Amino acid sequence: MSHNTFGHLFRVTTWGESHGPAIGCVVDGCPPLISLTEVDLQPWLDRRKPGGSRFVTQRKESDTARILSGVFDDGAGPVTTGTPIAIQIENEDARSKDYGEIARAYRPGHADVTYQTKYGVRDHRGGGRSSARETASRVAAGAVARKVLGDEVVIRAGVVQLGPHRIAADAVDFDAVYDNPLFAASVEAVPAWEAYLDEVRKAGSSIGAVVALEVSGVPAGWGAPLYGKLDAELAAALMSINAVKGVEIGAGFGAAELSGEDNADEMRLGPDGQIEYLSNHAGGILGGISTGQTITARVAFKPTSSILAPRRTVTRDRTETDLRTKGRHDPCVALRGVPVVEAMAACVLADAMLRHRAQVG
Ligand SMILES: Cc1cc2nc3c(=O)[nH]c(=O)nc-3n(C[C@H](O)[C@H](O)[C@H](O)COP(=O)(O)O)c2cc1C
Question: Alpha-carbon dihedral of residues 177, 181, 184, 187, nearest 10 degrees?
């Protein structure tokens, strides 16, 4: 299986399967002399880890990250050395017997059928490499990327739509996201969303959701025309997350309904002669290059395909059957997708920052 690596100067490779002994990542190209310990990684991993509430998979993983290489303490505390940073996270609670059925029958909406067709073999246990267990490695890499970016760049995401229930744009509050079990960007939304998701869960069903992303503190100039556009790289990274079916930057599909006048982010000069934009339909990126405004994106996650409700499918030996998927699954994958969205944005931006520095100093 090729293409387990992304990024250019800040380059991330992930490895491992859901029910193997461990998963992890190798971050290559991280600059030297950045202070880094496992303590920097763990808070981000804790946000994504399973088993935190009844609204996520009940698999119990501590997701404890261990740094195996690329960091050295020369007397002034552990710092990156510029060599590859290898991070390992052990799988502690794999229950492969729950997945016997999907060795035989393909889950509709999951990757079982395409992996088997392409490779002729697949580790079906817990979904193997197609399991979102892999996204823990992305979150670990994202934590390293955040250290590269520094505190100026603030990356935040949150669920803004759960099935048909939306949070109005002017009510979105990213500060609320990690204080509620639904990763909702509004505390007011939580009681109704909980009741709704309980119904979905008890019916053996699942539901999709939209995650909004907001990044402040990115200076003007990151990204490159034409084939290194920051929006294109961000969209590709977000789209690579399991179950993501749509990505919008700025006004996104809504821009198609706007007039040129309405869509134009008009400019004026600020007190020090700096450019000030009067709106941000572009989502902080023009011509593939950051404007210095907040970068905004929206990410659509499909509903979990592993559901108890029976669905029609076929088996590897070509018989038709109905499949009820057992095992431990997230009723709405977007919830734990929130820290993954943030991590992928961090990796793309760290890469863009280093490439910007390499070309224009
Ligand atoms: C955080 C997260 C958790 C997920 N948990 C599950 C799950 O419990 N069950 C499931 O069937 N899919 C889950 N998924 C989605 C699958 O991994 C994904 O649908 C599958 O790999 C097929 O890829 P695709 O949907 O991108 O085509 C999860 C996705 C994310 C981001």
Answer: -80
Digit-coded pLDDT (tens) for 58-83: 989 999 999 999 999 999 999 999 99
Residue 255 phi/psi, 5° resolution? -65, -25
Q: How far apart are CA 27 and CA 13, in angstroms?
A: 7
Measured at the CA of 7, the angle between CA 6 and CA 11, to 5 degrees, comes to: 90
Residue with tokens 């949070």: 167
Both tokens of residue 294? 């907040």
Residue 86, token pair as written in the block: 């290898």
Could you tell me the distance, in angstroms and rounded to a whole number, from the CA of residue 333 to the centre of ligand 1? 6
∠ Cα 344 348 354 (to 5°): 145
Is the backbone peptide bond immediately before 226 cis, with ω within 30 degrees of 0? yes
Q: How far is the CA of 80 from the centre of ligand 1 (A)?
A: 32
Return the CA Rg of the chain.
Answer: 21
Closest among 348, 343, 304 to 327, alpha carbons compared: 304
Mutate to test the pocket of ligand 1, among 240, 304, 325 (most ligand atoms within 8 A of CB): 304
CA–CA distance, 25 with 236 (Å, rounded to integer)? 19
Residue 243 CA to ligand 1 centre (angstroms): 5
Give the residue from 343, 332, 43, 301 showing the smallest Cα distance to 182.
332
| Cβ(333) – ligand 1 distance below 6 Å | yes
Q: Is the dihedral of CA 342, 344, 346, 348 positive or negative?
A: negative
Residues of the chain short of pLDDT 70, as ranges, are none
User: Would you state the pLDDT for residue 1?
Assistant: 82
Please state the atom number of ligand 1 nearest to the C-alpha of residue 132: 17
Within 13 Å, how many C-alpha atoms sit on residue 27's CB side?
33
Q: Can you say whether the dihedral through the CA atoms of 31, 36, 38, 40 is positive or negative? A: negative
Alpha carbon distance 325, 126 (integer Å): 11
User: Whose alpha carbon is nearest atom 25 of ligand 1?
Assistant: 243
Alpha-carbon distance of 347 to 112, in angstroms, equals: 28
